[in-house]
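User: structure tokens for this one?
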Amino acid sequence: MTTHTVVMIPGDGIGPEVTASARRILEAAEAPVTFVERHAGVAALERGADHVLPQDTIEAVREHGVALKGPCTTPVGGGFSSVNVALRKKLNLYAAVRPVRSLPGVKTRFENVDLIVVRENTEGLYSGIENRITEDVIVSMKVATREACLRIAQWAFRYATDRGREKVTSFHKANIMKLSDGLFIEQSRLVHERDYRNIRYEEVIIDAGSMRIVQDPSQFDIILCENLYGDIMSDLCAGLVGGLGVTPGANIGDTDAVFEAVHGSAPDIAGQDVANPLAIVMSAAMMLNHISESRNDENARKSAKRIKGAYNSALEDGQKTRDLGGDLGTRAFTDAVIERL
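Assistant:
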């Protein structure tokens, strides 16, 4: 059986715990992967690196083409810049994909939620280009380029077609930011009209779209956003299905892909065996499907299907961590999934 080398980046806070769970489950499912470990974030500094994103971590991902990453701490209002932003820029991981689906045994206000947020991942306000004009004036730059707007639109419509989805909705604020958001929806229209008439397309101003999502998420299928909007909307949508602990994510470029949970490093509960590992486990299943598609490996797809079936079965049987109303710890939930493989 062919095996694929994956770069494991444990991250900070609860990262080492939840990535260890994902690794145990991948091994128990006999997934066709092996791991090389590299570090980023505070964990890298603690190991003597001179930067939160060491060059050997970047080079390892470039060499092997795929990584599974735990959350990394980003200081608020000071300190070092975001590891996630730097990693996406360095590897040109321009497409962020965040599926949001209702899970068996996880009761929320909505049923049968099934939508996907596709986020441009390299520019816009979220890229953090800021300048101090005077002591009391800061300017943040929202950069939009035709190339980046075009390629994320092409990626979203191609993804919709490949996955059998029916509609792409661009969330924007082009009524106010007429140039930057205007360019974003202009390129989305172009791609739709030129190449993907098979997919329905609509545009929604993001504040009205946020209201519509919490009224009835079934109105949407694939939500296409620029960088900052996508970050906010994916977290909002996670709240529809149980929170960030049940929401996976992927950052994909033309040659490399990094899979990660959407949640943060939660240092306040690190080391207490209470963190929910499900989001990173779901991300690992996404990773296997990516390997299956990009490297034509049916064994990877089969392992992903087994893992998904096992965690769905565990949830359906009431085996849940405390954030979902259960009482299992990180290791106990991992055991419950493995028992059902």
